[in-house]
Amino acid sequence: MNTKNLETLMAIIETGSFQKAATRLDYTPSAVTSQIKQLENELSIKLFEKIGRKMELTQAAKDILPFIETILSNVEQLHNYKKDVSEITGTLRLVAPDSIFIYNMQPLIKEILHTAPNIRLIVNSLPSHEINQAIVDGSADIGIDCDKGNFPETLVHKSLRSVAACLIASPFIDPKETDFITPHQRKPFAIIGNEPKANYQTTLTEYLDAKDIVLRPFMKFQSIEAVKRSVMNDLGIAYVPKFSVEDELKRGSLVQLKTELDSRLYPSVCVYHKNKWLSPQMKMALQIIEAHTKGDLV
Fold first, then answer.
1. Which of 31, 84, 160, 248 allows an S-S link to 27, with CB 3.0 to 4.6 Å?
2. Where are the domains of the chain?
3. What are phi and psi of 50, to 5 degrees?
4. CATH number for the 1-79 domain, one of 3.40.50.970, 1.10.10.10, 3.90.1150.10, 1.20.272.10?
5. 296 pLDDT band (50/70/90 cuts)?
6. Topology at the third CATH level for domain 163-266
7. Is the Cβ–Cβ distance between 282 and 88 less than 8 Å?
8. Which pLDDT score, from 0 to 100, does residue 295 have?
């Protein structure tokens, strides 16, 4: 069996399309299609079916996916046998929420690439509530996220630093509307966010409900930067990790509103699959992640 065909299949799954897989692997689209047909003939099963406009994995392909991952993992182990970390090859797939990638992971990613320059590093920003599933289904190797508890049994979760969150507003907010301590209020603006299911966001929702502080319907944006810009323009307020707005708070382009949650810390975790072979690049990345995430961010 040609393992390159298996690698092509995994590239299609990871990128979401034949065209993107061809770009990643530096193949022509026709070569990718040919390799998948060869694999289907060899395995005597159909791997993809067209549903609407998308090509989706068949159930048979989903059933054999763990075997394919095991084969490629074994091949990778052979290639990296007794190699120094600077010589190892293979793929490392990291996932984390948008805010963590933007503000905390740049030095970490740089060190990973410096330590193991020959690996193929794939980073993907995912909503917090999708990270565990990405590790479970094998589309990612390591995830960094807020600790929401209730992890699937198949995941290992290691505690990292804890982070503070804060309620922010435009400096032009009406001073009469800055009170988020007194109960039974009706506010004329919305909460803005990009992670409505994040642990810190659900905590704020519970806090407001308990206080009977009612705001307009939640406004969801795709990125933390869009959230901050919208708050600066006085479109609403936001509850965000404090590390993501430190510069704006210092400059005065955003202001912090007091709540009874100000001293609360939200633990973060590193997660990976307990049944997955810990490749050299995963071990290296886990060590770097742990070294970069000591102490609390308050």
1. 31
2. 1-79, 163-266
3. -90, 120
4. 1.10.10.10
5. low
6. D-Maltodextrin-Binding Protein; domain 2 (3.40.190)
7. no
8. 56
Please report, to the nearest 10 degrees, the dihedral formed by the alpha carbons of residues 164, 170, 171, 173 taken in order: -120
Question: Is 49:36 a contact under the CB 8 Å cutoff?
Answer: no
CA atoms within 13 A on the CB side of 96: 23
Q: How far apart are CA 200 and CA 189, in angstroms?
A: 20
Which tokens hold the place of 50? 């067209």
Q: What is the pLDDT of residues 6-60, one digit of tens each?
A: 889 888 887 888 998 898 888 998 999 999 999 999 999 999 988 877 788 899 9
Say what the pTM is.
0.75
Residues in a beta bridge with 92: 121
CB 284 within 8 A of CB 115: yes
